Every structure is written in C-alpha cells, then in structure tokens.
C-alpha cells in the first residue's frame, strides 16, 4: 500500500473504500490518457483524477473539497466540472459530479463511476 494513501486515510480518519483505495495506489498521474465520458443518459466528462499526493497537498492548503458536505474533490475537467467522493460514514465512497456549481450526477461508488463512463475516443 502506498504511504501517501495511508497518510491520507489517517488525516481523514477513515479507511477509503477498497475500489478507490486500489485506484489511488496504482494512479500516479493526474491527467488521464483519455477523458472519461459519462454514458447516456448521464452527461459529463472527467479528464483528471487526483493522485494521493495531490489530495494531501490540497488538504495542506485547506482546499480538499466541501467540508460541510463531507465531500473531497478527487478530479474534474478543464471546463470547470468537479468530481467528489463522500468521506463520512453515511454514504462513504459515493461519487458526485458538479458543473456550474450544481450537482448533476451521482454514483454509488468509484467502481460504479468507472462502469458508467468510458474512455473518450482518441
């Protein structure tokens, strides 16, 4: 397990869901090779997913997400879309997508987010 992931979990005071934890351990670069496009009827695109080190830096800067909603920003797109994961015991690991300051999509888990998106064609 990555030392950065363990440090992030310690700061958050939770164990991240296994699917997202596994992703963070393997994920080393913020920009994705291909953006993830939401499958219909959903709408959205994500072209970056933060690494554990970037999440820790955001926490150091007090820019981790939306604390009052227990949401940690884990990625987004260059046009201003943001991807969050729930980091409290209620709905832990739930994924939320926001555009123009409005929540647009929700997924029950990181795995469900990956299942309901596909890599953008090159």
TrEMBL record:
Domain Knr4/Smi1-like as annotated: residue spans: 5-115
SUPFAM superfamilies assigned: SMI1/KNR4-like (SSF160631)
Pfam families for this protein: SMI1_KNR4
InterPro entries for this protein: Knr4/Smi1-like_dom, Knr4/Smi1-like_sf
Name of this protein: SMI1/KNR4 family protein
Record lineage: Bacteria, Pseudomonadati, Verrucomicrobiota, Verrucomicrobiia, Verrucomicrobiales
């Amino acid at each position: 397990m990555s030392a950065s992931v363990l440090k992030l979990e310690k700061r958050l005071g939770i164990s991240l869901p296994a699917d997202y934890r596994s992703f963070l351990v393997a994920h080393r670069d913020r920009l994705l090779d291909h953006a993830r496009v939401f499958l219909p009827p959903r709408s959205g695109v994500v072209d970056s997913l933060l690494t554990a080190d970037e999440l820790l830096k955001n926490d150091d800067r007090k820019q981790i997400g939306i604390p009052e909603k227990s949401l940690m920003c884990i990625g987004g797109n260059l046009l201003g879309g943001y991807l969050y994961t729930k980091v409290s015991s209620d709905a832990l690991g739930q994924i939320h997508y926001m555009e123009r300051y409005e929540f647009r999509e929700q997924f029950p888990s990181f795995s469900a987010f990956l299942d309901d998106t596909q890599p953008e064609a090159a």
